[in-house]
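Could you join me in thinking about how sequence relates to backbone shape in a protein? Would you write everything just below, so we can both look at the same thing?
***
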Amino acid sequence: MKAWVYSDYGGVDVLKLESNIAVPEIKEDQVLIKVVAAGLNPVDAKRRQGKFKATDSPLPTVPGYDVAGVVVKVGSAVKDFKEGDEVYANVSEKALEGPKQFGSLAEYTAVEEKLLALKPKNIDFAQAAGLPLAIETADEGLVRTEFSAGKSILVLNGAGGVGSLMIQLAKHVYGASKVAATASTGKLELVRSLGADLAIDYTKENIEDLPDKYDVVFDAIGMCDKAVKVIKEGGKVVALTGAVTPPGFRFVVTSNGDVLKKLNPYIESGKVKPVVDPKGPFPFSRVADAFSYLETNHATGKVVVYPIP
């Protein structure tokens, strides 16, 4: 099969498109997916740069956590999926502890049944491919902060991959009383359209000067030192990136198909919408360009690779 591979850690130049990679063998609890689209995440770039060497799977590596595609083969123990099912998933249960050596930036990938969900019927493969890791991260962040109806939240980097979903989950799934979000001037309307009650232009306003305090701050930009100053007493701060300042905390998402299944009705009803960066989707031949763009940290929503031939 064709797949993007790197054999050394480094910049985007280590990525090579190979055409003779073996199609993965499936274990009894796995399905083989014909990949139609794949999503990129910041963790893909950090992993390729060698930031998780100590716990990474062996090189060479086919990168990619997020996949949307069609089941073409099922293992003997698989119960809930069959050939022809349109599915999506974050293919690595643990993002940093032995993630899959053969990820989603390939024509085929093998995935455990427990990580999979049926693709929501109302969205296309490119939209679905941008969801799994980011929506699982947003949901796990809300669960870990014990977020519930009536609470308030401030999302830093509300137009980003995780932030754009965090706004929607907090507002439309968890029943937030108030959602505030930071974004650059040109993206304020987007975060409002996703459900933010207050859109804050980070180029003009300092979050420490905000009049209100929040039950939860979700820091998807790396400003934990400032985020901890805008929580209510007993409030919680989740830091996705950058240094952690107490009482802020960090977690690494665990992939779980049950989370996708739980959220599918909200996606199918239109309450939660995928946001795919308008510069994409990037064709399979331009994966290196997609990574370069992701690593500018200026993407809106998700950087997606589609179609995968």
Q: What stands out?
A: The radius of gyration is 19 Å.
